[in-house]
Design a protein that fits this description.
The chain is an alpha/beta fold and 448 residues long. The chain contains 13 helices and 17 strands. The strands form five sheets. Strands 2-8-7-6-5-3-4 form a seven-stranded mixed sheet, sandwiched between helices. It has a four-stranded antiparallel sheet with strand order 9-10-13-12. The longest helix is centred in the middle third of the chain and has 18 residues. The mean pLDDT is 93.
């Protein structure tokens, strides 16, 4: 008998690699060792996560108190389940969701499932690192038919938007603001981090597993005010998640909240990251100046190296990073990382730069223009379809989202008319060693 997936993961675990990727517990370092014994189902003694009794309600009350929400929920389906629920609670079928252009693919997928239209507003792109910058205002993009606004803050690169101002602009129009703060669950741990969006937005999700000591799938959803239909949101949570939720994941979300409320480890981590950034900059490495000190974004283009190449070199040296794009690598540092981890990272990174000569020329392909259409992803998803070569797809309507993963931000969105610039950009990512989802052997599914 064989268990290939299990064996593959066991082989990975035996290597004791250094992790700067999610989950935040770093291969179990930060997890409580009795969690596996808690893998039970809905029993009289254990309660039901979707219909909480005394203990589930108390855990969620403590979560709400910590983040300052009106109501909070523990989830086992990740931030995807939270995004599905908060969109369902704020936009009805046929309604319009206004989204930031760097929204996660789960936003588009949810609109497809619920029959919701979606329109995008642009994000500025950093000229050096080629990453989305912050959003300060969206007032000019809100129209009379807008039902809700969703924005990602922080984004994958640790850049935050002005949520206080955006929330005020939404509330002037009686429109709820939904914030995908998946990567910011730790913001409340130290005053030097950005303010959590829970303070201003109507609905906020956190992926506890991204930066906290929680297992993959552990997430939080927070609700405020009266602009979100709470009953519909709660019902959506039970509809979009498994009816047999993992109590191991739920318990890890609970213990992660407890540790966040009582510990000061993030203060130490913040200082370690600040020192590491200074050393990297002194070594001639470009480091993105973002809002989250613990989200490290390094750029090697002055050495003629793509993010994909840098990632492979680090991997060969026993170091795993969160993601790479054409220009950068992204690392997630948490209290479960040690000083030795950071020193090993610095040593390897400086070896990369020492082995390569600086260059003024780095091949670049223009980032495709923003989609200006109001999309109906559901119409595209359920339409008659055919598979064609990506090279022949210019001008056709895509029935899928084509997405470099991570970070999960589509280049071609479901329901969008495909442009040649998008095709060229995707091909460039693939040729450079990146991973793209939504294609099958170089083919894309389009409407007939």
């Amino acid at each position: 008998m064989a268990a290939p997936l299990y064996e593959r993961l066991k082989n990975y675990a035996r290597k004791n690699r250094i992790s700067f990727s999610m989950p935040g517990h770093k291969s179990g370092r930060g997890l409580r060792n009795d969690l596996i014994s808690l893998d039970v189902t809905e029993l009289e003694e254990t309660e039901n996560l979707h219909h909480g009794g005394k203990y589930v309600k108390e855990a969620q009350r403590l979560l709400s108190r910590l983040y300052g929400s009106n109501k909070s929920y523990i989830l086992t389906g990740g931030s995807t389940a939270a995004i599905q629920a908060m969109i369902c609670g704020s936009v009805k079928p046929g309604g319009l969701l206004l989204a930031a252009s760097d929204c996660h693919q789960s936003v588009i997928n949810t609109c497809a499932l619920l029959g919701i239209r979606i329109r995008f507003f642009p994000k500025e792109i950093d000229s050096e690192f080629k990453v989305p910058k912050y959003t300060a205002a969206i007032k000019e993009y809100i129209t009379d038919d807008t039902d809700a606004v969703i924005i990602t803050s922080p984004n994958y690169y640790g850049v935050c938007s002005d949520i206080e101002k955006i929330a005020a602009e939404c509330h002037e129009r009686n429109i709820p603001l939904l914030v995908d703060e998946a990567h910011g669950a730790h913001f409340i741990a130290d005053s030097r981090f950005p303010e959590t969006a829970v303070k201003y937005a109507d609905a906020v999700c956190h992926s506890a597993h991204k930066t906290l000591n929680a297992m993959n799938g552990a997430a939080y959803l927070h609700l405020n005010g009266s602009l979100i239909n709470t009953q519909r949101t709660e019902k959506a949570l039970s509809m979009f998640q498994s009816s047999s939720p993992s109590y191991v994941i739920a318990a890890s979300a609970d213990t992660a909240r407890d540790e966040l409320a009582s510990g000061n480890e993030w203060n130490r981590t913040y200082n370690l990251c600040k020192d590491l950034r200074s050393k990297l900059i002194q070594a001639g490495i470009k480091v993105l100046e973002n809002d989250d000190m613990t989200r490290l974004v390094l750029n090697f283009t002055t050495f003629g190296i793509t993010g994909f190449e840098a990632s492979r070199i680090l991997s060969q040296n026993g170091i795993d990073i969160e993601m790479a794009d054409l220009f950068n690598i992204v690392l997630i540092i948490t209290p479960s990382n040690t000083l030795n981890d950071l020193e090993a990272l610095f040593k390897t990174v400086t070896q990369i730069t020492a082995a390569n000569t600086k260059t003024t020329s780095f091949p670049r392909v223009p980032i495709p223009p923003l989609c200006n259409e109001t999309l109906s992803p559901g119409k595209a998803f359920f339409s008659a379809r055919t598979e064609i070569s990506l090279a022949d797809a210019d001008g056709r309507v895509s029935c899928v989202s084509v997405t470099p993963y991570p970070p999960g931000i589509p280049v071609i969105r479901m329901g969008e008319t495909i442009k040649k610039e998008q095709i060229e950009y995707i091909n460039y990512i693939l040729l450079s060693g990146g991973e793209v989802t939504g294609l099958s052997d170089g083919k894309i599914t389009v409407a007939e």
